[in-house]
Records
---
Amino acid sequence: MRPMRSSTFGATARCVAVALALTLAAAACSDDGDGAAGEPTTKPPAREATTTTRATSGGTGPPSSTSTSDPPRATTTGPGTEPGAPGGMGTAGVGDEYFPELGNGGYDVAHYDLDLAYDPETDVLEGAVTIEASATDDLRRFNLDLLGMDVKLISVDGRRAEFRRNGGELVITPSAPIETGEEFAVVVEYEGVPEPSVIPGIEGDNGWLTTPEGSLTLNQPDGARTWLPSNDHPSDKASFTIRITAPDDLVAVASGVLVSSEPDPDDDTTTWVWEARDQMATYLLQVAIGDFVIEEETGPGGLALRHVFSRSVADDARAPASATSEHLRVLGEAFGPYPFETYGILVPIGAPPGLALETQTLSLIPPGTVDAEPILVHELAHQWFGDDVSPARWRDIWLNEGFATYAEWIWEESQGQSIDSIARRNHDLLAESASDVVVSDPGLDALFGFEIYVRGAMTLHALRVEVGDDPFFEILQTWVAEFGGGSATTDDFVRLAERVSGEDLGDLFHAWLDETDLPPLPR
Ligand code: TRP
Ligand code: ZN
C-alpha cells in the first residue's frame, strides 16, 4: 500500500479533486491483503496487437466522417453534423445541449496557427491567430467562439472582414460569401488580459491562468474561448502551430514538438515555436510560460519524451516522471500504440492544487500531485481516451473519465493487485454514495462528478466481466483504432462493443449508464 500524502490535493474542495481522491483511495489503498505491490499475483493477459491498425484512407473506419479537411483517420460524429442555419449564416453552436453556444456550425477547422506574445508583468496577451477551415455550408457569415479580449482586426482570405461581438460569439462577415467545400483562412488579431471563466460544477478558474512565474492553460471544457478565437468544441479537431513570444529569462512550452526558439535581437524576448501535428480539440491545448527546465528522454518504441518542470520543483518531479516509460508500456499493451508524436508531463508552480489535466502530449500535473502515481497514469490514459478519441458531446464525458479511471485500475492490476478486489472496493464506494446522477446524462453540475469517474469505470469492468478479457481489450483497441483522431458518442461505443464481441449489450450499458440504481458488483 502506497501511503497517500494529505498534501496531494491541497485544501481544495473542488469536486474533481474529490473524485480523484476517492478514486485513488479505492484504487491504491489495498486493504484486503491481496496483491501487495511488488508481489504480482495477477497480470493482465497478454494480448495480440492485431487490432491496432488505424483506419487510413481507404481503410475500414466507420463511414460516418463529416470531416472534409482533416486527415481521413479523423471520424467525427455527433453534433458537428448539424446543418448550418438557413441563409448561409453558419450557426452559433454545434448543438451541444450542455453548451449551446460552444463551437459553430458551417465550417470545419483544419489548422490553427497561433502567434502569441505574453507579458507576465502586465498579464497582457497579444494574439494573431490564423484559422484554416473549409466550409461545410454556404457562408455569408460565420461565427467563432471568443469571450473577452479586444479584437483589433479580422481578415478572411487576406481581405478585411466585418465583425461584431455578441457574448461569447464573434460574428464575422467576410467581404465575399464562401461556398460549400471552399477552403478559407481567417486571421484574428486581438489583445487583452484574458479573463478566466468558471467551470460548471468545478468552481475553479478555467482558461489562461497566471502563475507566479508566467502562465498556463486549463481549457476543459470551455476555457479556450477566453483567450483563443476558435471553434471551441471537441467535435471539430485540428492541428496546431503555436508560436509564443515571452521574456528571455522564461521558457514557453506548448502541446506538440519544439521546432525552434529564437531570441529577438531587438528586445529581451524569445520566440518559441511548437508544432502539434496530430488532431487536437481546443480544450486539450496546453500553452505555458515559466522558469522551466525541459528534460528529454526516449520512451518505449523510441517515443520522444519531454518533461517540463518549474526549476524550483524539478528535483521533486524528476523521479515520479521517470516512471512514465513504464506507464506507457503497460497502457500501450492494454490500449494499443500511444497515439501521438510525443509525451511528457508539465509540472509548473502555481497550478491549481489537485487539478491535473490531460492536455495533449503534455499533461498538466500540479507540483503537489506529482507523487500520486494513479493520477499520472490517469492523465496518460486520457491521451488515448479523451484526447485521441474525444467526446462528440460534453454529456459523453464518461468516455474520458470512466476510461481513464479504469486505466488506473489496470495499472494497479499490472502492479499485482487483483482487479476483483479493486472493483469491490469501488463498488462499495458507489453503494455508499447513493446518488441520482445518470452517467450518460449527468448534467453540467455532475459533469466531472464521482459517478462519471467511478461508475463510468465500473461500466467498463462490467463489460469486461461480461465479454471476457480478450474481447474486452480488443474492444478498447478497436475503439482507438477506429475513432482516434476524431470524436465519438456513447452510442458509437455501445455499437462497437456489440460488433466486436458479437453480444447484445444493450441491457448491460443501459443499467450502468442510463439508470440511477446501482447494479450488483460485476463478477
Ligand atoms: N479532466 C480532468 C481529469 O483528469 C478533470 C478536469 C475537468 C479538469 N475540468 C478541468 C482539470 C479543468 C483541470 C481544469 O480528471
Ligand atoms: Zn480525467
---
Amino acid sequence: MIYHFEEGSQECRIEFRDRTILLTVINEAVCRVTALNRGEQKPQRSAAIEGDKQKQTAIRIQKEETGIRLFTDKIQITVEEDGRIGFFDREGRFLTGYLSEGEESGSCGEELTEQQKAFIGREGHETADAAENAVSVKMTLDEADCIYGLGDKTGVLNKREYEYEMWNTDNPAPHEDNFKALYKSVPFMMVLKEQGAYGLFFDNTEKSVFNLGKENTKYFTYHAVGGSLDYYFMTGDDLADIIGEYTGLTGRIPMPMLWTLGYHQSRWSYMNEGEVRELAENMKKYEIPCDCIHLDIDYMEQYKVFTWNRDSFSEPERMIEDLGRQGMKIVTIVDPGVKKEEGYSVFDEGVEKKYFATDGQGNLYVNEVWPGDAVYPDFGRTEVREWWGRQHKALLEKGVSGIWNDMNEPASFNGPLPDDVVFYDEETPSCHKTMHNVYGHYMSKATYEGLQKLDDRRPFVITRACYSGTQKYAVVWTGDNNSLWTHLRMAIPQLCNLGMSGFAFAGTDVGGFGSDVTSELLVRWYQVGCFSTLFRNHSAMGTRRQEPWLFGDESLRIIRKYIRLRYELLPYFYDLFYEHQKTGLPVMRPLVLEYSRDKNTHNLNDEFMVGSNLLVSPVVEQGQVKKLVYLPEGTWYDYWTKERIEGGGWIVADAPLDICPLYVKAGAVLPKYPVRSHIDESKDEKLILEVYPGEGTYYHYQDNGTDFAYEKGEYNLYRIVNSGNGDVKMETEHQGYREYGEIEIISVK
Ligand code: GLC
C-alpha cells in the first residue's frame, strides 16, 4: 500500500494493488471514505448533499507498523496494509472496523450470502454480473450496541438483529414488521455504544441491504448491488451529535409555514365542491380547529396532473377563496405519471422536449398508473425539474396552498420498471436501477423549487418517496398504513426513526388509510397524531369514513380535545422547528435520544418526547385503560392533574379513553396559544407561558409564519429564565418582528 498526503490537505489517498481508498475529512467529527471504482479519479456526485460541506480541519497522518492512522481532534481512523479500516474515538477507543480476514473479510466485492443473491436475483439481475459490481462492507458490533435511524422502516425502534432493504417500494399490502422496504430509502444508521456513538451514511442510490447483526450478532453488513462504496463516518458523544452531523451534511428542514403544523383533513377523495364545502361547514359546526383540506386524485380530469375536473369542481378559485375566508387552505395531490394522451399539453410538451424516460431504444417508456397508460418525467435533469416546477402555476393561481407528491417511488401498476429504462443523472444517461431511489427526491426538489419561484411563501410539499436529504424539500407521511392497532403501535418507532434520520416533519395517516377504523382506535390515534408533526387524518376510498364527528358524541368530544391541545401547543412545535434548524434534532424524539445513558430507554417503543420537555405515553392497545409509563430520572408533572412525580422508574398511569398520559419536565416553560379554530393574523395577539416548578431556561421563537422575511432578521427570539420559585424573566435576544399583544404567565403549583 502506498499513501499520498500533502501537509495541510484534508485528503489522504491510499493506493492498493487493485483499488484506491480516499479518506476525505469533512470536519473534525466526519470523514468520508470512498473506495474508488476502477478508472475513477474522484467520488461520484451526491444526490443527498448539496454544496461544499468541508470545514477547515487540522489532520495528521501517522505511519504505523501495519498501516497508517489518521487523526482529527475527534476521530482516529486506521487503514491497514490489507485494506481493513478501523474507526476510533478521540481517545483511541475502538468503535468499529472491518472484520479481519480470519474472522470474516470485510472489503469491496466480497462473496454474497445466499440471501443477498436471492435479493438481487429477484429483480432479474444476472447474479454473476451483479456480484462483480456489488459493494459491501462487514463491520464489527459490540454486544451492547443499539442501532437506530434508517429512515422509514417497519418494526421496532432499535434495529439491531433486523435486516432492511433500501429500494423505494409501493406495496399495498398491510405493512408488517417483516417488510424490508417501504417507500423511502435513507441509507443512514447510528450505533449507540456503551461509550459514545457513531453514524454511517452510505451515499449510494442503488438497491442495498443492511443486515444489522441478523446472522451473527458480532457484525453488521452493508451491501449494494452497484454504485460505489462511498460512506461518511461520523462520531460524537451521543446520538444527538450524530444527528447534528448527518443533517449538517444532508440538510435540515427550513422553517415551515405555521398553519402547516395545524390539523389537516383528507380522504381519497372528496369528490366535488359540495363535499368540500360541507366538510368545512362541519368543522365549524363541530368546533374542530382545522387549517387544511387535501384534495386527492379525483379533483383532476381523468387523473391528468395540473388539470381540474370541471364537472365536479366547476369554479375551484371561487371555492378556494370562500374556504380561505373560513381559514381553510387547500392542498392538491400531484403524481408523477403523466397520462399518455395526445392533445394533453403536459404530455405533448414533455414528448416534444424529450422530458420523459425512454426504453433502451429511445422510445417513450410507458407503464400504467391512475390515468391508465402514463409516462415518467425524468426528474434527475435540472431542465425537467424546472419545467415541472412551472406547471404548478396552474394550481397556485387557483389558490392552492401546498402540493402533495405521491406515487413517486415511482409506482407502476403494470409490473416494475425494468432496470434499464433510461433516466438521466443531469445530462449523463443513467438508468432506473441507479435513479429509482432518488426519483421521489428529485420530484420533491422540482416541486419545492417550482413553488419557491411562483410566490413568496415557504413551499409546503408532502412526499411519499424519499432519499437522504429530501427533508430539505418536503414533509413526509408513511404512506398506506391500515386502521389496525399494530399500525398505531408501529407509528411511534417509525416516526421516531424518521425524525432521527433528518425527517423531523412527518406523520402517519391518522386513523389508518386502509381497512375500517373503530371509534376507539381513531380516538387513540388522534392522541398520537396530535403530537406528531404532520397531523393529518386520511383514509382510502371504500373504507369507513373517518372524519371526527362520525363516531358519536363521546369520540367527538375527545378528538376535539386533542386537536385543540395541538393548537394550544403550536408555539412549542414551532420552537422545536427553530431548534431543528439550528441542531438537526427532531421534534418527536424517542426517549433514547434524550436519555441515551439510561438503558431502560433503548428499546422503549410505546412512548416518546416532543422536544425535551414533554413526554407522551399514549395507549396503543385496544381496551387498555391503564398505561405502564417509564419516567426517566428527574422530576415530572402530570400535564392533566399537575401532580408531581419523581422519575427513575415505571409508574402505572390512569388512561381512560379521554386521557393520553402526558408529563412535563420540572423547570419547563411551555409556550401556548389560546385555542383558535385556525391559524391567522391573531396568532400574535397573545402568548401563554405555562411555567413548571424547577429551574430552567427556554428559548421562544416568533416570526410571521409565512414567508422568508425571518432570513432577513424579521423574527423575535426570547430567552425565558425560570428561576424555580415562580419568578420568570423574559429577555428579547433578537428583535425584528412585532411583539405579542399580551403575554400571560401561568405558574403551575
Ligand atoms: C396512494 C396514496 C394515498 C392516496 C391514493 C390515491 O395510495 O398513498 O394516500 O390516497 O394513492 O391517490
